Amino acid sequence: MQRHLVDEFWCINVDSTAWSKVLHRGTRREFKKGEQIVSAGELVTQLRYLESGSVCMKRTTLDGNEKILMHIERSSLFCEVPFFTGDEIHSSFNCHRDAVVYCFSKEVVDDILEMYPCIAKDIIRTLSMKVSVLSNQIASLGLDTLEQRIAKFILLRYNLMNLADADLMTLGTLRMKDVASILGVHRATLYRALKTMEKMRLIKLLNENRLQVLNIEALAALANH
């Protein structure tokens, strides 16, 4: 299946193995889907490594509006910026899929950085990837139409899947509300745009959080217009 080049703008897949040698220095914690791992307004005193599962980073306003900033997949650090800056965090981290997280205190992190230069390189690599993803997100929110953002989102999902069954694509554990938040719109606005793309014969909406890709080349052309 041909892959279509699209800049990642919401999902972090670092897949780091550097931390495996120091996990014994951290505190192991388990979280179930929906549990909050880090709260907005918290002073972050521990660096966290996601061994398995996935974590959602979101920003919530006082009146309850939410924006999903990124999803972090297994084998990656998270919450490192407020840990190193010492500032209160303005976003929250919630468990999206059952997760195992290792927490490291500042004293332990300082010790690890002296002993393992590869850990320092991994932190730089992880932060660089997140800057790239968030830069792509800002650019897409500011420059792309909603239909273009949807096309990019579909292409990113498409590239990860082996679509042998008539190009049927599932959103997996994501709800339509989550997709709308990632794309920076209300769910009703997203649904209207999806219906427009359905009328354009680009996709077909199905039940159970699925859709059928009808014209992948036209979607790619729309995404890169």
Automatic annotation (TrEMBL):
Keyword DNA-binding: yes
Every Cyclic nucleotide-binding domain range: 13-101
Gene3D superfamilies with a match to the protein in the record: Jelly Rolls (2.60.120.10)
Alphabetical UniProt keywords: DNA-binding, Transcription, Transcription regulation
UniProt xrefs under SUPFAM superfamilies: cAMP-binding domain-like, Winged helix' DNA-binding domain
The organism's place on the tree of life at top rank: Bacteria
Occurrences of domain HTH crp-type (ranges): 144-217
One cellular component (GO) term of this entry: cytosol
GO MF terms, alphabetically ordered: DNA binding; DNA-binding transcription factor activity
InterPro entries per UniProt: cNMP-bd_dom, cNMP-bd_dom_sf, Env_Response_Regulators, HTH_CRP, RmlC-like_jellyroll, WH_DNA-bd_sf
Pfam family, one: HTH_Crp_2
Protein name: Transcriptional regulator, putative
Species whose genome carries this gene: Nitratidesulfovibrio vulgaris (strain ATCC 29579 / DSM 644 / CCUG 34227 / NCIMB 8303 / VKM B-1760 / Hildenborough)
